[in-house]
Design a protein that fits this description.
- This protein is about 65% helix and about 0% strand.
- With about 100 residues, it is mostly helical.
- The chain is built from six helices and no strands.
């Protein structure tokens, strides 16, 4: 069985994941529908659709809340949120959290 960290790290081998990609990978691993995942993290189905399509910029605070709700390390979700912000603003930096 894939562990929570293995799932995300495995998909991170080729390129850095976005927060949306990580959440979708987790949803698939948990075998949840998009509606179930939206409910689990406390957003509407339409908001979840916008998240998956990467139409939204997710705050660090919100990323941390979702990590806690899904029982994943906050550090991982915060990293993805920060990386997404940099990428959207065309900065080619890599985030490393200690």
């Amino acid at each position: 069985m894939t562990t929570r960290t293995d799932l995300v790290d495995y998909k991170n081998v080729l390129k850095p994941l976005t927060l949306a990609q990580a959440i979708e990978a987790i949803r698939e691993d948990l075998e949840l529908t998009k509606v179930e995942m939206a409910n689990r993290i406390g957003i509407s189905k339409s908001h979840y659709g916008s998240l998956v399509n990467e139409d939204l910029s997710i705050s660090v605070k919100k990323a941390g809340e979702w990590a806690r709700k899904l029982r994943y390390p906050e550090k991982l979700f915060v990293k993805y949120a920060l990386q997404d912000m940099l990428r959207r603003n065309e900065y080619d930096f890599k985030i490393e959290l200690i």
